[in-house]
Each structure stands twice: as structure tokens, then as C-alpha cells.
Design a protein that fits this description.
heterodimer, A: alpha/beta, 6-stranded mixed beta sheet, 20 helices, B: MetI-like fold, 15 helices, about 75% helix
């Protein structure tokens, strides 16, 4: 018998604009010792399903119908008292955004103690020792010292270990992991997921892995269920699902996942694919960064966030700047786009040193228009009280020479260019979807027809299918407007789709740079290799992909880490 | 960690010093800029120009401003705030007697207010849209929209005139009792210290009505802020983690949510406290409370500059001390602050 059985589960939320059916008749089973992955994009109801199981839905959410049975207990009808005994002791959860998931003003050790004491796993006398044991169980070194740390003093990966320790402290039988690695670096993601997989195996746990990342689901689960709009559209083993996706949505999702040997156009469903734009020949250097240094005052003297970085971006070229958080890539791009002054070094743009103009004065510099940026978070980078039209018109008003109706026409032209329906122009950011907001951000950046566009993780917050369309839009725009790109990202597989060359940064320095194919296939630096290896690779794709070369097909179909380890 | 926090506390104290100096300068200049001539007041209506000039010389008002300032600061350092013209008493002595009266009233009012507002806010936040939530809203709106003199008069009318439960609203203590020996200046504490429970009871009966009046008025911002901060804390990720770990409802509510919600509540408490201390003049007038507010108003009416100057300085210093206290409380509650500082 399955450990957890969900039948026809329906969850709805009462909102100001009526009832929203978040989950509509979901049936799932998780066997003992089995890991089930639930895959879906935002709004698919995958997280809500798990919250409903734990009965920790937000206010206004209710289980409308169906049942969820865990080890013979009906979770829907259990009393609140029974549920609070089950939570943490029988079923426990780990969450995304681990730093926010921990109480910011309580020592992490004390938070562990709270859970241990609650479920009778420790007494007041031995609580501290038990908490330290729980931290050691998730491979935290110097656990006795970390016991006294507050969440803000720990890295994201370390916070996630604490959250895992919290979840596993009372030896539950079922672990629900809700996007456990979203927002973490790829190498951290791998470390955390490997740890989770190891603990699951060691303790014979059953697990539900909720993720938007198909590669992650394939690598760390036995079976996969794909959800969309609150329904399960397809289920099967990861290999089956990737090789022969039956449902059109699964097919679209599989296709949109960036992976080896697939071009940017192939991410899109075949019916909307257009031929790729003609490639412009790569020209003379447009941007030359020379010996760029930026140091910040730290506790022990100054810290070099960027240390003698040199690279160039030529006309019509796309260069990827890759690295993990804290490697200095964002500082570098902020200096290039002239939001931050370098400590030393040159930034030659079209032959002139723009670093000579202080960042404070650069907004009024005529070259501002030729050097623009698309920001990481489409929501946070738009003024919430401005309409899309006002956002796009702003650079035109400040730096352009258009006024009145000409400017209005230009805004509509730009909206067409980025594929934003004109009727959405008068909406506010909160009335737009993530993809639409990304388009507004892009339209604003290209409004003045810049020569160089700096893209700071422009798709990091987007679902894969939206990411696929936005990436293709960027490819088209680059050809149409004759731009060059500096693409800043932590994701090598996304960078590969767009870029001719890749620059890999680590701890403020460039560890490697070269043509994309060479860096991806034969990295010179061990660090680049570890980055590449850390990305979970979805299994080979079957009917959908254009017949793969048998060798690479073999390579992609290699057993996923979980299978390899067991 | 602890050393970091200590350093933050010390630096906050150090930051208060220039503020205090600024306050002294501004108070001095402010009183010198007020219209009217203290020398003419001192001399009285029948004085001629010569005697006014003599008094001016005696008071040191004919010296240049910076010399006057040096004298002023010198007096201040000796604890001399000058003499009140209307009462003839040293200002420092009068303030020392009246400030505890105001503080006792305000503190008790805030204590009452917190005792009601915090549970009410928490209750409203845990059950948004429920009856408790609506009741909270009604009480809060009523408390803030009724002026204090009205609430005060209404309470006197009901509890003194109609029911006869409360004593006559005539100051801090009925004349049948003797003032307890002065230790803190707070009658409730001083009476308790010597175990004179009869006087204690008498003082309590006097203070209840004005304190309730003030409490009703200060209830609103505290309850609202508690509700809002709790709502935010309860919807945060770490509360979800705590719930998912099966922690008891009380642990989730108090150890996790409320402690985080406390930060904005303390800020509001500080603001309400400083505001109330200055604004309880009306209550003091209605209940004939011999506080610092009514003293200042009386002094202003008769252009008693030394008294006004003393009042402004005292209040300013009190505000500085209060802000310091809040900053330190913040540092103690939130470990992140010591790190940034």
C-alpha cells in the first residue's frame, strides 16, 4: 500500500475577485521509499497541493473535495491537534528561499530545539546536544559554533541545510521539498540536492520533490507528475516522460528546457518557430574592459569584489558573463553600465573611456542612450505606480528628442517590437504577467536603440516556457536593432543559447574565457567544469528532437546521478 | 556577537550627546527670540525706564548673546534652570515635583493601553474579518476619534457624578492622605515602598480615571500597529516553516510571529509615549493633575520664560532619552542591528 494517497483533491481560495480553483481533482500516490517529483510552472498548483496535505494553506484556502490519506490517517478530516503531531514527526517540509524560511531573530540552534522539544525528541537538558547532532546529520561543520548563528549570518546553502535539519530532526517518513534549491547557485544546488538524496536513501524516506526544473526532477526522482492549471496532465518515470511526452503541455515543457545540443529556436513549439535571423558578421571591439578593479571596504580592510578583469565585446557579438553569486559579475556589469564607479581600470566604449565620467554624471551623458540594461527582476525594476506606457516612454522623454504624439507612436512601435499587445500598455506592473513585465523591461531598454545591451539574468525569474520566448525575442531584437549583448547569468546552459563567447568569473577574477563551444565542451578551468557538471541534465529527448546523433544521444541518456549513485 | 551589540549600544549613547548639545542651543535661542521683555515683567507695571535697565543688568540681559549663553550653560551645569516669575520658585524644583506626576500618569496609561492593545491586535490578526477583528476596529476608531477632554469629562460624569465610584477629580491625592515620602516621585511606588497601602489605594483611585482617558486615546495606534505587524509576521515564510514543523500554536504565535512583530510595535510605542507626554495637557487640566503640561501652559499664558525654557529643555531631553531607549531595545531584540552598526 502506498504511504500517501491523494484522490481527486480540490483546493480553492477565496479572493477579492471571487473563488480561485487552485487545485482541481489531483490524484497522486507516493510509495514507501519512493521519490515523486511534481513538475509545473508557476500557478500550476503544485505547491498548493503540498500545503493542502500539510493543512497549512494560507488564509482563505480550503480543501473543497477529495481525500488525502497518509498511513491510514485521513489528513483532510484529522483534527488540528492530530495534524500538528503529524507535521514534523511524520511528514515534514523544506522550502524555497531558505533564509526567509528561518526565524530571523532566533538562533538557528534554538529553532532546532523548538522542533525537537515539541515532538519529544529531546528534553530541556539534552536539547542543545540533540540540536547539534541534527546539524551534524546534515553535514554542517563546526555545528557547535553554528548553533549560535542567526540566519542572516549564514550563506543560502547553509540556511537550506538548517531547514533540512529542521525537517529531518524528528525522523519523519515523508519529506516534501518545495522548490528546495530555487535561488541557490548551481554548485550549491547540487550539494544540497545530493545531500537530500543521500538522506532520503539513508533513512528510507519517501519524498515529494516539487520543482519547476525538469532536469532536477529527472535527476532526483523515481516518478514524475506534470501539473498545469491545478491538474495533473501526465505522469510516468522521468525517462518515459522525456523520451515520449504524450501530453502537448509536457512536450512544450520538455522542449523549452535548455539542454545540450539544442538551439534557441528549438526551445519553442514547432508551430511558432520562425527561421533564425541572419547572423551579422562580428565586427570591431565595441566594449573593451581593461584591468577593471572595484574594492569595497570590509571588516578587515578592503575587499576586491572585482579584481583586474579584462575582456571585450565586439560589434554584433554576444558575450556571456558567468559565475555564481558573489563572483563579482553583477558588480562588473554595474560598472560597465555606469551605475558604479570602478576603483581603477578602463572601460572603453566605442574607443572612449567611459569610466572617466563619474557614474553620478553619466545619466546626463549622451552616451547613456547607447548603453542600456535589462534588469534581473522584472517586477522590482518597474515603478509600481507607472503604467507600462510610462515606463517605456521614460527614457524617450529623458534622452530622446521625440515629444507628444511622436513619442506615443514610438512607444506603440516598441510594444509591437517586443511582442507586447498594445492594449496592455495602460496597465500597471501588478496587472501584467511575469513574461509581459520582462517585455516591458526590454522595450524600455531598447527604446533608444542602444549599441550595447547588458542583460542581467533577464529570465531568471521566469517559467521555462516564458524563458524560451523571451530568449528568442532577444535573439531577434539583437539582429533587428544591430545590438551587442553582454549577458550576465549563473546558468551556463542559458548563456550558451545566446552567446558567441563566454567569460567565467570566480571570486572577482576571470578564470576562463573563450568561444562558447570550446568552453562548454572542453573547459580549461576545473571551476568551469564543476559549474557544467552541477547542472542537472534532463534525459535524452525522444520523438520531439530532431534525430540526435547516436553518440550524443547516448551521452545525454547517461543514468542520472541518483541512479548512478545507488 | 555580544561585543558587537555592546559597541552598537555605546555608539548610540555617544550619538545622543551632540543631540543634547543641539537641544540646549536651540532652547536658548528660542527663548531669546520670544517677543516681550522679561526685565519689564520683573520690574512690574509701575517701574520706570531706569529700574528696568537695572533689572536688565542684574539679569545679565544687556550682555552680548554669546556671553548670556555661557552663563546659561554654566547655570545649567549646576542644575539651575532659573526662577519662575509667577510662582517665585526655582524652575528646577517645580519641574522635579511635576515631572513625576506626568510620567506616572503617562506610564500607567501606556501600561493599560498595551495591556489591552497588544492582545487585541494579536486576536484581530489571528482572526481577520472575524467578530473580534471588527470589535477591535470599532474600539480603536472610537478611542482615537473622541477627544481626550470629552472622554475625561464623560468618565467623570459617569464614575464620579452618577455612580460615585471615583473620587473627586482634584489632583493626585485626596487631602485626607499625606503625600508619601519622596523616593521616585511616583506616588504609587513611593507608597508601596513604605507599605502605606491606604495612601496607595487613595493614589490609585485618583489616577485611574485620567489614566483610562489617556489609554483610550493611545490604544488606537498600538492596536493597529500590532495587528498589521502580526498579520505580516504570520504570513511570512518562517511562520510557515514553524507550522510545517508541527510547533504548537502558542509557540508559533508568540515565539515566532510576535517577537518579530514587536519591532514596529516598539517604534510606535516610543512615538505614542513622546506624543502623549506633551499632549496630555488637556487631561491634566480636566483632572486638575499637577503635571508638567499644565505647568507649561500656565507659564506660557503669563509669559514666564524661565519656566517655559525649563519645560522645553526637559521635554527635549526626555525625548532624546526615550529614543535612545528605543534604539537600545531594538538592538537587544534584533540581532541584525549590531551586525550592521
Amino acid at each position: 500500500m502506498a504511504l500517501l494517497g491523494i484522490r481527486d483533491l480540490a483546493v480553492s481560495f477565496r479572493t477579492r475577485r471571487g473563488t480561485v480553483e487552485a487545485v482541481r481533482g489531483v490524484s497522486l500516490e507516493v510509495g514507501r521509499g519512493e521519490t515523486l517529483a511534481i513538475v509545473g510552472e508557476s500557478g500550476s498548483g503544485k505547491s498548493v497541493t503540498s500545503y493542502a496535505l500539510m493543512r497549512i494553506l494560507d488564509a482563505g484556502g480550503t480543501i473543497k473535495a477529495g481525500e488525502a490519506v497518509y498511513g491510514g490517517v485521513d489528513l483532510r478530516r484529522a483534527s488540528e491537534r492530530e495534524m500538528s503531531d503529524i507535521r514534523g514527526r511524520e511528514i515534514s517540509m523544506i522550502f524555497q528561499n531558505p533564509r526567509a524560511a528561518l526565524n530571523p531573530i532566533r538562533k538557528v540552534g534554538r529553532q532546532l530545539e523548538d522542533v525537537l522539544l515539541r515532538h519529544g525528541r529531546a528534553t530541556r537538558q539534552d536539547a542543545k546536544a540533540r540540536a547539534i547532532e541534527a546539524m551534524e546529520a546534515v553535514r554542517i561543520r563546526d555545528a557547535a559554533q553554528r548553533y549560535h548563528a542567526y540566519p542572516f549570518e549564514l550563506s543560502g546553502g547553509m540556511c537550506q541545510r538548517i531547514v533540512i535539519a529542521l525537517a529531518l530532526a524528528c525522523e519523519p517518513k515523508l519529506l516534501i521539498a518545495d522548490e528546495p534549491t530555487t535561488g541557490l547557485d548551481v554548485t550549491t544546488q547540487k550539494a544540497v540536492m545530493d545531500l537530500v538524496a543521500e538522506l532520503i536513501r539513508e533513512r528510507h524516506l519517501s519524498a515529494v520533490l516539487i520543482t519547476h526544473d525538469l532536469g532536477l526532477a529527472a535527476a532526483y526522482s523515481d516518478r514524475v507528475a506534470v501539473m498545469r492549471h491545478g491538474e495533473v496532465v501526465e505522469r510516468g518515470t522521468a525517462e518515459e516522460l522525456f523520451a515520449r511526452p504524450r501530453h502537448p503541455y509536457t512536450r512544450k515543457l520538455v522542449a523549452a528546457t535548455p539542454r545540450e545540443g539544442v538551439g534557441v529556436r528549438e526551445l519553442l513549439p514547432p508551430e511558432v518557430r520562425t527561421p533564425p535571423p541572419p547572423a551579422r558578421p562580428i565586427g570591431a571591439p565595441l566594449l573593451q574592459v581593461r584591468e577593471l578593479v572595484r574594492s569595497f571596504p570590509g571588516k578587515q580592510g578592503s575587499v576586491k569584489a572585482v579584481d583586474r578583469v579584462s575582456f571585450e565585446v565586439c560589434d554584433a557579438e554576444s558575450v556571456g558573463l558567468v559565475g555564481e553569486s558573489g563572483c563579482g559579475k553583477s558588480t562588473t556589469s554595474a560598472m560597465i553600465v555606469r551605475l558604479l564607479d570602478p576603483t581603477s581600470g578602463q572601460i572603453l566604449f566605442e574607443g572612449e573611456d567611459i569610466a572617466a565620467t563619474p557614474a553620478k554624471r553619466f545619466p546626463r551623458d549622451p552616451r547613456r542612450a547607447r548603453l542600456q540594461m535589462v534588469f534581473q527582476d522584472a517586477t522590482d525594476s518597474l515603478n509600481p505606480r507607472w503604467t507600462a506606457r510610462a515606463c517605456i516612454a521614460d527614457p524617450l522623454a529623458r534622452l530622446g528628442d521625440l515629444s507628444g504624439s511622436a513619442r506615443r507612436d514610438r512607444v506603440e512601435e516598441l510594444a509591437d517590437l517586443v511582442g507586447l499587445p498594445r492594449e496592455l500598455l495602460d496597465r500597471f506592473p501588478h496587472q501584467l504577467s511575469g513574461g509581459q513585465k520582462a517585455r516591458v523591461g526590454i522595450a524600455r531598454a531598447v527604446a533608444l536603440e542602444p549599441k550595447l545591451l547588458i542583460l542581467d539574468e533577464p529570465t531568471a525569474a521566469l517559467d521555462v516556457s516564458i524563458q524560451a520566448t523571451v530568449l528568442n525575442l532577444l535573439v531577434d531584437l539583437k539582429a533587428r536593432l544591430g545590438m551587442s549583448y553582454l549577458f550576465v547569468s549563473h546558468d551556463l546552459h542559458v548563456v550558451r543559447l545566446l552567446c558567441d563567447r563566454i567569460v567565467v568569473m570566480r571570486a572577482g577574477r576571470i578564470v576562463e574565457q573563450g568561444p562558447t563551444d570550446r568552453v562548454m565542451s572542453a573547459p580549461e578551468s576545473d571551476y568551469t567544469r564543476s559549474l557544467l557538471d552541477a547542472v542537472p541534465v534532463p534525459p535524452a529527448q525522444g520523438a520531439e528532437a530532431p534525430a540526435p546523433d547516436p553518440d550524443t544521444g547516448q551521452a545525454q541518456g547517461a543514468p542520472p546521478p541518483r541512479a548512478a549513485a545507488s | 556577537m555580544a561585543a558587537g551589540r555592546l559597541r552598537t549600544v555605546v555608539s548610540r549613547v555617544a550619538q545622543a550627546i551632540p543631540v543634547v548639545i543641539g537641544v540646549v542651543v536651540v532652547t536658548f535661542l528660542l527663548t531669546r527670540m520670544l517677543p516681550g521683555d522679561p526685565a519689564a515683567y520683573f520690574a512690574g507695571a509701575a517701574a520706570d525706564a531706569q529700574s528696568i535697565a537695572e533689572i536688565r543688568t542684574a539679569l545679565g540681559l544687556d550682555r552680548p548673546l554669546h556671553e548670556q549663553f555661557v552663563f546659561y550653560v554654566g547655570d545649567l551645569l549646576q542644575g539651575d534652570l532659573g526662577q519662575s516669575i509667577s510662582t517665585g520658585q526655582p524652575v528646577a524644583v517645580e519641574l522635579a515635583r511635576r515631572l513625576p506626576a506626568s510620567l506616572e500618569l503617562t506610564l500607567l496609561a501606556l501600561l493599560l493601553s498595551c495591556a489591552v492593545a497588544l492582545p487585541l491586535g494579536i486576536l484581530a490578526a489571528t482572526r481577520p474579518g472575524s467578530l473580534a477583528d471588527h470589535a477591535c476596529r470599532v474600539l480603536v476608531t472610537a478611542g482615537v476619534s473622541l477627544p481626550t477632554f470629552f472622554t475625561g469629562l464623560a468618565l467623570i460624569y459617569v464614575f464620579y457624578y452618577l455612580l460615585g465610584w471615583a473620587p473627586a477629580p482634584l489632583g493626585r491625592l485626596d487631602f485626607v492622605y499625606l503625600e508619601p515620602p519622596r523616593v521616585t516621585g511616583f506616588f504609587l511606588i513611593d507608597a508601596a515602598l513604605i507599605g502605606d497601602w491606604q495612601t496607595w489605594w487613595g493614589a490609585l483611585r485618583q489616577i485611574v480615571l485620567p489614566a483610562v482617558t489617556l489609554a483610550l486615546f493611545t490604544l488606537a495606534p498600538l492596536a493597529r500597529m500590532t495587528r498589521a505587524a502580526m498579520l505580516q509576521a504570520l504570513s511570512s515564510d518562517f511562520v510557515r516553516t514553524a507550522r510545517a514543523a508541527g510547533l504548537r500554536r502558542s509557540t508559533v504565535l508568540y515565539t515566532y510571529a510576535f517577537r518579530n512583530a514587536l519591532l514596529p510595535v516598539i517604534t510606535t510605542l516610543g512615538m505614542v509615549f513622546s506624543f502623549t507626554l506633551g499632549a496630555n495637557v488637556l487631561v491634566e487640566k480636566v483632572f486638575a493633575w499637577p503635571g508638567i503640561g499644565s505647568y507649561a501652559v500656565d507659564a506660557l499664558v503669563v509669559s514666564d520664560y524661565a519656566a517655559v525654557q525649563g519645560f522645553v529643555l526637559t521635554m527635549a531631553l526626555l525625548f532624546v532619552a526615550l529614543n535612545l531607549l528605543i534604539d537600545i531595545a531594538y538592538t537587544l531584540i534584533d540581532p541584525r542591528i549590531g551586525f550592521d552598526g
